[in-house]
Amino acid sequence: MEMIDKAAIVTGGGSGIGRATALAFARRGARVVVSDVDERGGNETVKDVESDGGHAIFVRADVSQSADVKAMVDTTIRTYGRLDYACNNAGIAGATAPTADYPEEAWSKVIAVNLSGVFFCMKYEIPEMLKLGGGAIVNMASILGWVGFANSPAYVAAKHGVLGLTKTAALEYSSRGIRVNAVCPAFISTPMIEKFESDEALDKMLIGLHPMGRLGKPEEVAELVVWLCSDAASFITGSAHLVDGGYVAR
C-alpha cells in the first residue's frame, strides 16, 4: 500500500493493459482516474477496482483531442486534489498495409491517438505534478518502438515517436522531481489482438515470435508500469523497458 492517498491517471483504461494497470495502482492504495473513449469498458474497470476494495472514477476522453485531455486532468484535480502518477496507455492498432499503400486517413488517426495523445497527456499532467514537487509518468510504447514491423508504418512510427518524447520530457523535468519512462510490450493477450488470436495460423505465428513460447498477459505489463512509478524506481528515468518474452533479443 505504498501509494496510499496518491492519485493516478490511466488512459485506455477500459480494457487490457489499461484495466490491469488501474487495478494494480488501486491495490497499492492509489486513487485512480480511468479514462477511455469506451464508456462501458471504462465503467467496468471502475467496478472492478471498487470490487477489489479500491477507489476509482471514470472520465471519458479522446486523447487525440487536447481539450478532452485537459478536462480529464482538471477532473482529476477537482476530485482528488493532486496527480502523482500517469500511465499514458491509450492507443489503437490502425490499418494494415505496406507504406506506399497505407491510407492517409488511417495514418493521421494512428499518429493522433498514439503519438499526439501522449504529448497532450504529458502537456497537461506535468504542470500538476510540478505543483507537488514531483511525480512519475509511464508512456506505453511497444516493441515496435524498438524495431520495424512490415505493414504497420503508422503504428511503428508513432511508437518510435513515443520513445523520443519520453526521453525528451525526462531530460526536461527529472531535475524537478518528475520521472518519465516508457514500457514496451510485445504481443499481449488484449482485445487489440483478439482478431489475430482467432486465426489459428496467425496466432501460432505470433506466438512463435516470442522465445518464451507464448503471448504476454496484461498483468505482466501492469506490474512493471506501477513499479516504475513507485519509489523503488527512484533513480530510473528517460528509459524504455521491454516486456517482450525475448522478442527483441531474437
Structure report:
The protein is an alpha/beta fold. The chain has a single domain (about 5-190, about 220-245), classed as Rossmann fold (3-Layer(aba) Sandwich), CATH 3.40.50.720. It contains eight helices and seven strands; from the N terminus they run E-H-E-H-E-H-E-H-E-H-E-H-H-H-E. It has helices spanning about 15-25, 40-50, 65-80, 105-130, 155-175, 195, 200-210, 220-230, and strands spanning about 5-10, 30-35, 55-60, 85-90, 135-140, 180-185, 240-245. It has a seven-stranded parallel sheet with strand order 3-2-1-4-5-6-7, sandwiched between helices. Helix 5 links the parallel strand 5 and strand 6 (about 180-185). Helix 1 (about 15-25) runs parallel beside helix 2 (about 40-50) and helix 1 packs across helix 8. The longest helix is centred in the middle third of the chain and has 29 residues, at about 105-130. The protein is globular. The model has no long low-confidence stretch (mean pLDDT about 95).
How are the elements arranged and paired?
Elements: E1 7-11, H1 16-27, E2 31-36, H2 39-51, E3 55-60, H3 66-80, E4 85-88, H4 104-132, E5 135-140, H5 153-173, E6 178-185, H6 194-197, H7 200-208, H8 218-229, E7 240-243
Parallel strand pairs: 1-2, 1-4, 2-3, 4-5, 5-6, 6-7
